[in-house]
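Standup notes, protein team

Yesterday: finished cleaning the Pseudomonas turukhanskensis set.
Today: ABC transporter permease structure.
Blockers: none.

Input for ABC transporter permease:
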Amino acid sequence: MTRFYRWPIRLTSLALCLLFWQVAASQRLDFGLLTFTYVPTPSSVAQAAVALVESSKLWAHLSSSLLRVFAGYITAALFGVVLGVAIGRWKWAEDTLLPPLEVLRPIPAVAWIPLAILMFPSSELSMVFITFTGALFPVLLNTVHGVEGVDPRLIASARSLGAGRWAILREVVLPGAAPSIVTGLAIGMGTSWFCLVTAEMISGQFGIGYYTWESYTIQNYPDIIVGMLLIGVLGMGSSALVKHLGGLLTPWYRGASR
């Protein structure tokens, strides 16, 4: 019931934001550092969204972005979890794998784009690679922290009962690290969208990022906000899906949190 009573507050918050947007854009308010002179109103954005839905372009943009995101994300999730478990569990992996990964981690997605274009034979693969790099490090670091945070007493107890290395990994380490891994997967999904949109703005032909950038170049301002809202909704929805699936796979953690 508590969650039910929180929904009116959340909806009121959204309504107040829309109201401020409507007033600021329609009155062309200018606050000096922040101006709404050229910002379209919510009604014009809604009209642009309806026009996009009725056109044949929406599915082409959506399918392109979704394919790129999930191809890069799934690959990053597999690599991130495997590398994270290895680095968190074994010192030799931490000493050999973590230093180069830590050097690469702060490099932003935009900086990878020229090299990705040189390395891959097609722009499609380069955009998938950019998405991969965005999702890899949140998954990797959360997996490492989750594995390192498993109570050593549980591992010692399992070892004293005769469990082998792989049994400990499967029955103790992975279940203990699962909540942190799920958190990393959810964060990685969000960063995947951020990196993909950046790549599509520069080297894409279809996709939500390309649609948003193209709208800016032709000064179609309502369509810019439509693209931004699509990115937000898709990113929020895909992250929520990852969290939901993670919750189904970790029922013991959900029960403890309640």
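Follow-up from PR in the comments: The mean pLDDT is 86.
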